[in-house]
Amino acid sequence: MKFEIDKATRDRLEMIRERGRAEARPIGLEADRLGRPIPVDDPYFAKLIERGEGRTRWSGPAPKEPKGGAGGPSQVTVMSLLFVEELAYWDRGVMVATPGVGLPEGNVLAMGTEEQKERFLGPFREPDRPRWACFAMTEPGAGSDAAAIQTSARRDGEGWVLNGAKCFIGNASRSDWILVQATLDPSKGRAAQRAFFVEQGTPGLGGFRIEKKMGLKAYESTSFTLQDCRIPASNLLGGEERYEKPSGFKSAMRVFNAGRPIVAANAVGIGRAALDEAREFAREHGLLGDARTRDRLERAARKLKMARLLCLRAGWLADRQKPNIVEASMSKAVAAEIGQEVTSLGMELLGTVGARGDHLIEKLYRDVKAMDLVEGTGQIQRVIMARKLVGLPRD
Fold first, then answer.
1. Domains defined along the chain, listed by start
2. Which CA distances in Å does 104 have to 1, 268, 298?
3. Over the chain, what is the mean pLDDT?
């Protein structure tokens, strides 16, 4: 594997650093202090749109696939991992709050009809204002076990009727549309799952409640309900023909397989930030004279480099369209654990300073915990790896 970074990528990383230092970290600290998400009308979001951010990767009716060279593999995933790691270094909550299509974009690009791409991705090509979209899988009774969702979809005449509840969905109340995962029959498990576009303002979509979280307060994690929510048949992702085979659940899982290295890279970025702050604190307070402190800091740096390589390996395979289930789960399980380890080390070095609640490391300590939870807990990642590596049975 070669992870060469071209000049354009280096320049973009430097731009992220400059903007992260000047904008993302201050606004993230403010959101954490105030205990609420960045408001929709915050000038920061308008500034991002003016810069051309928050846009979809869909380029129109005849999209061109990015190439890493003439006939060569793409480098899109690997480059994305580098970018999100740097963004998370400055503030992962602000990164998630950034306007854009977000998590469901991959599903829409892979499965959506041309008409759906035009309707739902088109407004994100050159957005006239900050716009969001989101993917709703998690439910009060179905978190890590995504196959256990109970939100129902019933065909009714020319459309569908959805009923159920979703929770901890990022940016849901401010999204133009939500890609909702639902089931035709809970007893049939994965094979009966479908994904539906539910547009904001649809009757029956409501009950939005922004949850209080211990960290990552810059973006909203929202619960909502669907009560006899009627949507047109054209809002079924991919159309009826896409579901002649049981692809609905598999499509959603492909997004998670791509997203797990992203979450892992987030954990690496947060861990790097905590390590840098811990090292600086140790230097300022004369702690580097202690051999054990130096050893622990060095071990943390080494483990973070290991976690980054796992992330890049999973992304490298994805760019070559090779199976990466084990590597994706491994990167997330390892990186999330190491991120927590590094922030814990930082808190230990802070001592009573960490208890005041006003140090960046204390915030990072709270932020990084979510990296072990979202898109499958560390325990679930180990189950996935065991199934693949040692033949652990599914039941």
1. 249-389 (1.20.140.10)
2. 29, 23, 38
3. 90
